[in-house]
Amino acid sequence: MKLDPALEALHALLGERGFVRGPAVEERYRLDAVGRPGEAPLALLRPADTGQVSRALAICHGAGLPVVPQGGRTGLVQGQLPRAGEIVLSTERMAAIEAIDADAGMATVQAGVVLQALQERLDELGLMFPLDLGARGSCTIGGNISTNAGGNRVIRYGMTRELVVGLEVVLADGTVLDGLRPVIKNNTGPDLKHLFIGSEGILGVVTRAILRLVPKPGARVVALCAAAEFSQVRALLRHARGRLAGELTAFEVMWDSYFSRAVQVIGRAAPLAPGHAFYMLLEAAGPDSGCVARLEGMLHDALQEGMVSDAVLAKSEGENARLWELRDRSVEVSRVTVPIVTFDVSLPIAAMESFVAQLRTATLAIDARCDMVVYGHLGDGNLHLTVHYPPERPEAASAIQCALYPLVGSYRGSVSAEHGIGIMKREFLAHSRSPQEIAAMRALKACLDPKSILSPGRIFE
Ligand SMILES: Cc1cc2nc3c(=O)[nH]c(=O)nc-3n(C[C@H](O)[C@H](O)[C@H](O)COP(=O)(O)OP(=O)(O)OC[C@H]3O[C@@H](n4cnc5c(N)ncnc54)[C@H](O)[C@@H]3O)c2cc1C
Predict the structure, then answer these.
(1) 0.85 exceeded by pTM
(2) Of 186, 217, 249, 455, whose CA is between 20 and 30 Å from 449?
(3) How many angstroms does the Cα of residue 259 sit away from the middle of ligand 1?
(4) Which domain holds residue 210?
(5) 54 touches ligand 1 (CB under 6 Å)
(6) What is the domain count for the chain?
(7) Between vectors from CA 414 to CA 358 and to CA 230, what angle results, nearest 5°?
(8) What are the pLDDT digits (tens) for 289-336?
(9) In terms of domains, do 143 and 226 share one?
């Protein structure tokens, strides 16, 4: 099928609401959450259900047209941005919460459901989908699954992978893999859903999912603490894990460089005095207010034993939210000054302090004006780093990347803890994956998408 007939066929299939031809596609479909641009797409597809996704992909497959799936476009590695000649497949019309089974603790949803919409619906029912991240107002379940999103509560509930019970996926040629079985136990050969979770859309389009729910905690409380030494931060993590066990739902760390900028961005009085080396944001949640008393008791002892220098405990849901704002606005905080180069790495917690010190030395050697902002999900071994470099030294960005990624590899860490590889980190994949692993990924891609029409060039060429 030639190009124009294929576009005509897509138009006929999806109608006016579901098909927009190149020049008429709004600009937002080629911008990510921080305004990075992609190319103008050949067309925009907005299918309403799995059947339309399947038939649309069959047409694209027949014509060899490349397709990039899009959810909320909050991905941070440019995987969702169209490249020249590509078609955007947006899941925005597939936003139905189809079923909620409170007894089984499961929800069946279409891929385009916005995370916050699901959170709010479940909240009314006394339930919770444990995934939470700063982009909750725009990111979609399909995007969360395709990036295996992490976020704020991984320490308690795991990454998205742990929260998916069943998955429906459409392969490049339109074949529907219906893995929507509402059962936790299903040892019937390789669990195919895991191929698609975290694969950034290169193996198939996620169309529906069954998600794991938990009872909504009856109480939650947030605390902010400060420490002078990284050894205290690690001691506090051990102490909090021991004392709060399954009630510890977040343990975030902010280096002073991040905290002082966050206070500036938010524009309110700092909840703790600036000038400490480290700030830790902890959240505990449980069935009743016992978790508040336990967090308070744990902090009291941590202060007595010198693990923290100062601490503040939120006294209301409003105060909880205000403390979380320090972490949730990380994208703005990192961009207080530009240009920047950003990183999202996993490391053994014991190696973090020396890693940051080595990186600081390396960036200052590249340019003495480089400045580093560090924060992350410490409990998960995940650091986010932003390095600011002088605008008149654009080549510094690549020099900084070339210093950082081998260092991550030397600690057997991950060059992408939660954001994925997309296009931005493609050339650094080999610092986290062996040649044999990359060859196996390529073989999978060739098997499931032999014409390479799904997000070509993402993760690897
Ligand atoms: C303020 C902010 C905070 C963030 N915090 C976190 C965080 O704490 N943890 C974290 O992990 N990430 C975080 N992110 C990154 C981002 O929010 C997540 O990657 C999110 O899961 C992406 O969802 P999305 O719907 O926006 O996907 P998109 O950005 O639209 O797409 C992301 C990738 O998934 C693919 N994709 C999208 N939908 C589908 C589908 N249905 N089928 C197949 N492939 C698909 C796309 O092609 C692309 O490769 C943050 C981003 C922002 C802007």
Answers:
(1) yes
(2) 186
(3) 25
(4) 100-215
(5) no
(6) 3
(7) 45
(8) 999 999 999 999 999 999 999 999 999 999 999 999 999 999 899 998
(9) no
